[in-house]
Hints:
mainly beta, 37% strand
Amino acid sequence: xxxxxxxxxxxxxxxxxxxxxxxxxxxxxxxxxxxxxxxxxxxxxxxxxxxxxxxxxxxxxxxxxxxxxxxxxxxxxxxxxxxxxxxxxxxxxxxxxxxxxxxxxxxxxxxxxxxxxxxxxxxxxxxxxxxxxxxxxxxxxxxxxxxxxxxxxxxxxxxxxxxxxxxxxxxxxxxxxxxxxxxxxxxxx
Length: 189
């Protein structure tokens, strides 16, 4: 029997996304967000939802662009810190020991040390409630060669991305492969 636990922000898995923006003075900023994901195939788009109270919110609105850097397990401490501190009062890149790199596609920085980067041009904004959802068209993806599979695409086992568990307020790693998409269920078709 299922037990109701009420309406909550629980969805598994939840990605750990590092939102890169520049402030009005060109200072690079990075913020951890977990409310986001792919939202369209053509054009390729991704969403991220931020509260208006965050420094990154105003930076994103002003620039019309953002990056999403995907950290590996190695950087869980830095990723957590980027979600707790404010770029308004701190140089988060310096404190976390990370390197900002100017995107060559959009007006936003990304994190050099993280293996996968999505460069996004803001195309839509939706005010929902406490959060505003930003839809960005993915104009380029950059990946460290060390995390690419033989087919030239990112390999999740090599990337070792961090997953966030909202109910537990904890970070987890990716588990083992259990099947192939668009194949495993063919027997039932």
